[in-house]
Amino acid sequence: MAVIETNTKSSLHLRSNSLPSAPHPLVSQLEDNLQRLKSSEGAPSASSSSVCNKLNGMQDLHDCIDNLLQLPIEQQTLVQECNEKSVGDLLEGSLRILDICSIAKDFLLLSTESIHELQSIIRRRRSNETGFTVEGAKYMALRKSMKKQIRKALVNLKSMKNGLISSSSNNKQNNSSPMLQSLKEAESITLNSLEHLLLFISDPKGQSKNGRWSAISKLMHPKRVVCDSLESDTNEFEKVDAVLQHLISNKLSCTENVQSQLENLEMCIQDLEVGIERMSRKLIRNRVSLLNIFNH
């Protein structure tokens, strides 16, 4: 057992070792996850599949972190090399990320409930435009309020990212442990993914003219919907916003395409909810592991 622990220790601290040795598989896995996720960062994704892929990547990343945190040698190193401020920053950061996850889940839940109300109106009052118009207006009011709240959340998130950049820079200057640096890097990447999720929900383009008329064109020319959908990764939230706004403004009745787009948005939301819920569970598990490490 002593030999295994010694080998593990040497591999985990490869960067500080003068003798070459193979890195621990978990260390390599963590570094691979970090590099892959960093390389996929960039402009906010327009498609739900891209956002879901980011959330899935977060699950793999935090799974790997949890496995590393279970290694006794890594626990010992963190305890020895993390001062009180570093510990506080890690725990505070994990809590704030969980708060953002909770906010995102609330927005998705409210969207689903409003979609269900619209679908119910469509089913019960196919010939009654008034009920659809009223419920559609409620949905658009919810979206307006939601976007306002998301803008505030994004401002707070940006502040967190700036503070993290400063903290990570100090950690590198102080030659912090590789694990601590990786934890801070994972926190930064997770914040970026959550930022993309919130931007996707809020439709940052603000229903640009092109976005509106693209969605409206698909509504008016249903035969082109399949073809157009292959050529464009239009945000599912944007499609519903644009079409509902057009119908309400022009006092038009709903069409089969509206129902189809509502169903697509509902499925999109379900996928996002699954992704954010799974990631939240892994974040909670990692937070518990950190608390156990620093409380013993």
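That was protein one. Protein two is written in the same sequence-then-structure order:
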Amino acid sequence: LQERFDELQDERQQGQQKLDQQQTLLIKLTARLKDAEATLRSERLAAAEKLQLQQEAEQRLSQQFENLANRIFEQNSGSFRELNQNSLDLLLTPLKEQLEGFRRQVGETHAQETAQRHSLKFELERLAELNARMTEEAAALTRALKGDSKQQGNWGEVVLARILSECGLREGHEYHTQVNIEVEKGKRYQP
């Protein structure tokens, strides 16, 4: 009876250690989730600031262009009447191309940031799902550890089989379950 009590104590300690490990892992994952959320917030803020700066730069360029055009027009109002449309197009085409290139760059930057936010959102959802699954497993382990020894044994078998399977081991090849071993004097063990 004392031997069985010691075995149960060992099993309970092992179960408590597993529970502690699961709780530690849960705490780490929760911290990673908070870090990821903080990163997402800072990236969103940085993206908004960057977009704001780009819009302000575009407005400044537009205003500078308008001011330059007005100055040139005032200085050379007589000359502008004499210039034909082709000369004006030759003067403005490089500036239009630069503005168009700037708009494309702003659009590409925005598309990249959107893709990065989507990827980060996916990772956060995956972490939340993993966190929920670990919480469920920890709760199931707690229930099993508080139950009778048969349930504890069954739970241990399920957990061990899952661990061995995830390690790439196959039941019946690299390990066996419910094995009976007979030793001297007719004693039987079922490890």
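The chain has a mean pLDDT of 83. Keep this in mind for the problem set.
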